[in-house]
Amino acid sequence: METLFKRPITELGFTPPWSPEASSSQSGRVGSADANHAIGQRIFGATPPSLPSSVATDFMTITVSHRHLYWAVPAARLHRSVAEHAQLGLELLPQLTGASKTLLAKALSESSLLAGRLEFFDLQQPELAQPSFVIALQAAHEGGDSLLGAATLAHMAFAPAFSGDASRAEEARERIRAARAFARRGGANAEMVAWLDAVEAEVETRFGDTRRALNLVHHAEETYQEHDAETQPSPAWLDWFSPIRLAGFKGNTLMVAGRGREARETLEEVLSDLPEEEVKQRSIYLSDAAAASILENNPERACQFLEEALDAVGRNWYATAMDRIKTVRQSLRQWDSLPAVRSLDERLYDWHTTVSSFVG
Q1: pTM of the model
Q2: Residues 153 and 124 sit within 8 Å (Cβ to Cβ)
Q3: CA-based end-to-end distance of the chain
Q4: Do 119 and 17 belong together in one domain?
Q5: Percentage of the chain with pLDDT > 70?
Q6: Is residue 160 located within the same domain as residue 233?
Q7: Per-residue pLDDT, 319
Q8: Same domain, 299 and 356
Q9: pLDDT at 39 over 80
Q10: Domain extent for 39
Q11: What is the pLDDT of residues 62-116, one digit of tens each?
Q12: Whose CA is closest to 37, among 55, 60, 17, 59?
């Protein structure tokens, strides 16, 4: 808004949540552990007490640890820690100045972005994710980090895209356009640009334009060939994307486009190359491979993929993957009498999976 109106945010009638003037009546949130998820408490006094600059470095160290833990720790447990960490960052930010404040703002942005990712993808609570993404965007602005702003805006495009509401297509596309503008402003490298192509492809796939989505994937593949990690390294937090992940996007789009054989072959290559520790993504790709097998009228192979996906979800719960597994299972209705489908249902509705689907 400051860029658009060329005036400070405070002159436009808004108060950043880390501002000393922010009152307790302002009720956003970053995904804190309590029910209300308040984004900040009132900071009394006109001038908050100052803190040593080492606070920012220590805070960033924990943020980096959370980034690494995301791939191994159960989402519900990690979310509590990440959300409380982000809340702490909000309270600390007005007590720092200069370079230490900039560093803390960037760490806060990354923490809030991670909280939003956990809320949206892992816990399937999009109503909680949106305020977390807003805080991430505000903190990125405070830290002067356009690339974090671009990453946040791209994530904000997923909510309308996943809503199933066709009337929200332009909302998602507008956020992608904003993300690309921020990426250009921040001098994004080829990998970041390729990721934005992949996100836009996901958006277009969700809204039924698979032709444009595949064109975007093709552009991302070409862009990735220009990527030189040594001369143009990506931000450390961009750890959710790789050539393998891009191929996974492609497999999903091919599947939605009805090109079952191509989708399955692409996804099988992805699964063979995917690192063993990437359990969450494995469950997604297995589900998509199952859907592609259904397009090939091969329900037995689809059930094999889905059982493997359930194995992965059992090791590391991922609500988005479980939702996809159930969606693919619905496509097997005409084969309900097959032993393979009945065996799948025994796995899908056993005690562990059933309870986990409700408690997350």
Answers
A1: 0.83
A2: no
A3: 36
A4: yes
A5: 84
A6: yes
A7: 84
A8: yes
A9: no
A10: 9-125
A11: 999 999 999 888 898 999 999 999 999 999 999 999 999 999 999 999 999 999 9
A12: 17
Dihedral (Cα; 331, 293, 157, 236), 10-degree rounding: 140
Residue 287 pLDDT greater than 80, yes or no: yes
Alpha helices by DSSP H, 49-188: 54-69, 75-92, 98-117, 126-142, 146-156, 158-162, 169-185
99 and 154 share a domain?
no
Do 20 and 106 share a structural domain? yes
Among the candidates 125, 158, 187, a domain finishes at 125
78 CB-near residues (< 8 Å, 6+ apart): 66, 69, 70, 118
The span from the CA of 103 to the CA of 64, in Å, is: 13
* The pLDDT of residue 219: 98
Flag whether 77 is in a domain: yes
Please enumerate in sequence order all residues whose Cβ is within 8 A of that of 21, keeping only pairs 6 or more positions apart, or say none: 15
- Rounded distance between C-alpha atoms, residue 197 and residue 154, angstroms: 10
Domain-embedded: residue 19:
yes
Q: Sign of dihedral through CA atoms 314, 315, 318, 323?
A: negative
Mean pLDDT (the chain) is 88
Number of domains the chain contains:
3
Q: How far is CA 119 from the centre of its chain?
A: 9
Q: How far apart are CA 195 and CA 119, in angstroms?
A: 21
Residue 256 inside a domain? The answer is no
Q: 10 Å Cβ neighbour count for 222?
A: 12
Is pLDDT above 50 for 44? no
Task: For residue 116, give the nearest of 74, 158, 144 by alpha carbon.
Answer: 158
Confidence label for 60 from pLDDT (cuts 50, 70 and 90)? very high
User: How many alpha carbons lie under 13 Å from residue 28 in its C-beta half-sphere?
Assistant: 22
Interval 163-172 mean pLDDT: 95
- Token match 């497999």: residue? 251
Q: Is the pLDDT of residue 200 over 60?
A: yes
Taking phi first (over 0 means left), then psi (-120 to 50 degrees means alpha), and beta for anything else, what does residue 38 get?
Answer: beta
- Both 22 and 110 in a single domain? yes
Task: Report whether pLDDT(18) > 60.
Answer: no
Cα–Cα distance for residue pair 257/294, rounded to 1 Å: 13
Please name which of 75, 157, 142 lies closest in space to residue 109, comparing C-alpha atoms.
142
